[in-house]
Amino acid sequence: MESWQGLIDSGYRRWLPVTDRTPSVSLNEGNTPLLRSRHLSDLTGCDVRLKVEGANPTGSFKDRGMTVAISKAAEDGAELVLCASTGNTSASAAAYAARAGITSAVLVPAGRVALGKLGQAVRYGARIVEVAGTFDDCLRIARDLADHHPIALVNSVGNELRLSGQQTVAYETVDALGAAPDIHCLPVGNGGNITATWRGYRTFHTAGRIGLLPRMWGFQAAGAAPLVHGEPVAEPQTAASAIRVGNPATWQGAVDARDESDGLIGAVTDEQIFDAYRLLARKDGVFVEPASAAGVAGLLDRHDRGLLTPGQTIVITLTGNGLKDQDASLRDGYTRSRPARPPPKSPARSPTRPWRQ
Ligand code: F0G
User: Fold this and answer.
1) What region holds the Rhodanese domain (predicted)?
2) Short-list 177, 262, 256, CA closest to 214
3) Cα 162 to ligand 1 centroid, rounded to whole Å
């Protein structure tokens, strides 16, 4: 079998806005596992599948969009790529820019990014600017800079290329299941991923690859749920730092995905998010970052309230890898005990007949 070469070269070139002139800047992203969750399936009476996006090269779904965005930036001769981020976009942008030999700069909210993500951006060589403000402030500054300087902005806003790459998660899901699921659950922050996933299903529907479309169920953290309230949140609050977004840039796209699919965008509390975060690790052996558990939290919330019909096929995008946020893991229910003393050394044993000692 030929080995996987990434989304552009192996997977979905014909569905991506690339040409023969576009260099393929890839880390062999995509082709991530779609795991059946026995626990969630038994609990809900549905067939629940987990799309493990933390298996991407920089540990999140962002790599799907970034291979396209940076490949096009390289084709256009960009010298600097810029993004605002709660962490994962910056890690991904920095990695793909490094691979393309392009300088990257990232704007992140100071003190509000998981250290693993910051560590990635540092190691990949990004110029890092920590902003005393929220992610929304970072995005505003990034857009302003890109408007006035020759910079390639690789946030999904103003960069449809990112979204077209992220559509591939729907293509892979359909190719694995042979159809669309009944419901696709995922966390929502800036709104790009729900928009892209829905567009992916619609693209395959228009092309005749699927008959029925899924319902899109997006979930925001209760303290950062502007799409649920219908208005921006000035000071978004949640321990799930990746989705601490108060004014989603792809607002309309997210609302369209919800409405066109007859779906929903709901809120889950941090407690529900962390319950799901623990459950995924303990019952399915999948370690995600807290924000990534929001889709599972939302599904369980619907189930608990009797709003889930059994017998459906449900795909949940697990957006990022738990290794990125060890602080969250160690803060949550791990108390360090005093280190145990090693036993005293026993006398040397005979190498030939150890059992006689
Ligand atoms: N899950 C994770 C792990 C994320 O990093 C993000 C977004 C989302 C879910 C939500 O996706 O924004 O497309 O609705 N992270 C962005 C970032 C904001 O900068 O890394 P969305």
Assistant:
1) 81-124
2) 262
3) 13
Range of the domain at 145: 62-161
Determine the atom of ligand 1 nearest the C-alpha atom of 218. Answer: 14
Indicate whether this complex's ipTM tops 0.90: yes
Ligand 1 atom closest to residue 196's alpha carbon, by position in its atom list: 13
Point out the annotated binding site.
88, 189-193, 319
Check: CB of residue 181 under 8 Å from CB of residue 315. Answer: yes
Question: Are 188 and 136 in the same domain?
Answer: no
Q: Is residue 268 part of a domain?
A: yes
Residues 6+ apart with CB under 8 A from 331: none
Tokens 């360090």, located at residue: 336
Shared domain check, 132 and 279: no
125 and 260 inside one domain? no
Q: CA 61, 27, 50: angle at the middle one, nearest 5?
A: 30
Rounded to two decimals, what is the model's pTM? 0.94
What's 18's domain CATH number? 3.40.50.1100
Do 22 and 76 reside in the same domain of the chain? no
CA of 335 relative to ligand 1 center, distance in Å = 30
Q: Which of 182, 132, 203 is nearest to 315 (CA)?
A: 182
What is the tens place of the pLDDT at every residue in 160-212?
899 999 999 999 999 999 999 999 999 999 999 999 999 999 999 999 999 99
> Both 201 and 300 in a single domain?
yes
Q: Does the residue 18 lie in any domain? A: yes
**Is 3 a member of any domain?**
no
Locate the ligand 1 atom nearest the alpha carbon of residue 186 and give its number: 9
